């Protein structure tokens, strides 16, 4: 934020009215506006309506980078820029706790730090960086977004959960809730990450669940611990016969985590499993998967 103020010479205490909120420049930049990754449409407006710079259509830069490469004339011009910035979008996180197990006054989330490169410079995502740097006790605003479909079935049904990476979050909640309910249905978790030593999220908790029987099966894949990359879908293939049997028995199956590449690869593998263990053609296997969706027995929460 300080960088933006220095680059533009704007008074940080100046009150500005944007489409959603009226506040000081400091507050707007700190809390309300999307300054780290403005939309392409915002950059287009910045170029054509306000500054007159020629900026290639595909360009997406953080506001500080934009101001460095395509400067505003003065603080007054930057006031206009502030008015076209869109609001900071909320980030969604799956709840990874369960009231029955962790109490009604706690909500846990499982956040992975988003790191990426912009022209060889390492950057971090706004929200995940925020969580990783704030001390215990920091207060922040949040809201709850209800999920209509991604829910546990009745306690007697078996549940298969595929949760690579932070995809484990809702399943930590599911398993804890089923444990608290002493559910008679069985629970099976597939978890995947890069390295066993550093990335096995909730390892001891899951091992305890395995011991107590709250988890009937736990299959893990650590992709970078050996030469050959091994992912959750490979573990599913190894257990294909059992997995198909659970589904034939009425199990509910869920996947959570990154959409690409996991979710697509898992669906491909499921079709292969149905072909092999259900003795089905490609078309029949796809139909079987579709039928699971129709019955609410194949639910996805991917991002
Ligand atoms: C339903 C749902 C559930 C989710 N559950 C979880 C969960 O349980 N745990 C979890 O960790 N996450 C979860 N997510 C993802 C989470 O909401 C955030 O998207 C994630 O934490 C990244 O947010 P961020 O603010 O850290 O990154 P952002 O700042 O939003 O950046 C996101 C991406 O934008 C790009 N980017 C940003 N700035 C620039 C730039 N200047 N130049 C180039 N590229 C840029 C990068 O590709 C970066 O990876 C979930 C998402 C959804 C929709």
TrEMBL record:
<keyword id="KW-0285">Flavoprotein</keyword>
<dbReference type="InterPro" id="IPR017938">
    <property type="entry name" value="Riboflavin_synthase-like_b-brl"/>
</dbReference>
<keyword id="KW-0198">Cysteine biosynthesis</keyword>
<keyword id="KW-0028">Amino-acid biosynthesis</keyword>
<feature type="domain" description="Oxidoreductase FAD/NAD(P)-binding">
    <location>
        <begin position="161"/>
        <end position="259"/>
    </location>
</feature>
<keyword id="KW-0288">FMN</keyword>
<dbReference type="InterPro" id="IPR001709">
    <property type="entry name" value="Flavoprot_Pyr_Nucl_cyt_Rdtase"/>
</dbReference>
<protein>
    <recommendedName>
        <fullName>Oxidoreductase FAD/NAD(P)-binding domain-containing protein</fullName>
    </recommendedName>
</protein>
<dbReference type="Pfam" id="PF00175">
    <property type="entry name" value="NAD_binding_1"/>
</dbReference>
<dbReference type="InterPro" id="IPR039261">
    <property type="entry name" value="FNR_nucleotide-bd"/>
</dbReference>
<dbReference type="InterPro" id="IPR001433">
    <property type="entry name" value="OxRdtase_FAD/NAD-bd"/>
</dbReference>
């Amino acid at each position: 934020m300080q960088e933006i103020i220095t680059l533009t010479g704007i008074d940080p205490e100046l009150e500005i009215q944007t489409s959603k909120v009226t506040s000081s420049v400091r507050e707007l930049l700190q809390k309300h506006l999307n300054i780290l990754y403005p939309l392409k449409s915002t950059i287009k407006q910045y170029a054509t309506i306000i500054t007159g710079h020629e900026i290639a259509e595909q360009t997406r830069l953080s506001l500080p980078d934009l101001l460095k490469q395509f400067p505003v004339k003065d603080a007054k011009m930057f006031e206009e820029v502030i008015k076209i910035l869109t609001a900071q979008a909320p980030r969604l996180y799956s709840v990874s706790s369960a009231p029955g197990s962790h109490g009604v006054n706690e909500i846990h989330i499982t956040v992975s730090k988003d790191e990426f490169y912009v022209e060889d410079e390492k950057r971090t995502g706004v929200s995940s960086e925020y969580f990783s740097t704030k001390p215990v006790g920091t207060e922040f605003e949040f809201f709850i977004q209800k999920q209509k479909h991604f829910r546990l079935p009745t306690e007697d049904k078996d549940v298969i959960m595929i949760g690579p990476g932070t995809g484990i979050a809702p399943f930590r909640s599911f398993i804890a809730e089923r444990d608290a309910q002493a559910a008679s249905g069985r629970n099976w978790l597939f978890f995947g990450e890069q390295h066993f030593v550093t990335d096995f999220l909730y390892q001891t908790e899951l091992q305890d669940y395995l011991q107590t029987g709250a988890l009937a099966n736990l299959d893990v894949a650590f992709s970078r611990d050996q030469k050959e990359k091994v992912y959750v879908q490979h573990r599913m293939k190894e257990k294909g016969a059992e997995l198909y049997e659970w589904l034939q028995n009425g199990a509910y199956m869920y996947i959570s985590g990154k959409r690409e590449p996991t979710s697509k690869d898992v669906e491909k593998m499921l079709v292969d499993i149905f072909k092999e263990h259900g003795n089905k053609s490609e078309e029949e296997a796809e139909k079987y998967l579709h039928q699971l969706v129709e019955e609410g027995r194949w639910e996805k929460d991917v991002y």
